[in-house]
Write a structure and sequence with these properties.
The protein is of the alpha+beta class. It has one domain. Helices cover 29% and strands 34% of the residues. A 4-stranded mixed beta sheet has the order 3-2-1-4. Strand 1 and strand 2 form a beta hairpin.
Length: 91
């Protein structure tokens, strides 16, 4: 699953793992469609010092997102809990 990360994201995760001064934040945006409120899309992305790193990684269900994040957490111990935000309904 780690192969889904781009080179910049991997580099930031390694910096975060090996430094105490790096402030890597994991964000998860949740989008829901107005016509199907039960359908949600999850977008995971990283920010370092307020700047977004690479592109978002999309998931269609929460189970896949949680599995991916737990894989990251087991590989990179210093990763913080994700900041979740619900985005207003699109469409």
């Amino acid at each position: 699953m780690i192969e889904r990360l781009c080179a910049e994201q991997r580099r930031a995760l390694l910096l975060n793992e090996n430094s105490t001064s790096v402030n890597l934040i994991v964000h998860i945006d949740v989008y829901s469609l107005p016509s199907f409120l039960s359908v949600k899309r999850y977008f995971l992305y990283f920010s370092l010092f307020g700047n977004k790193i690479g592109s978002s990684i999309a998931f269609t269900n929460a189970g896949d997102l949680n599995a991916f994040f737990m894989t990251l957490k087991s590989t990179f111990n210093q990763i913080s809990s994700p900041v979740r935000s619900s985005v207003p309904k699109c469409g």
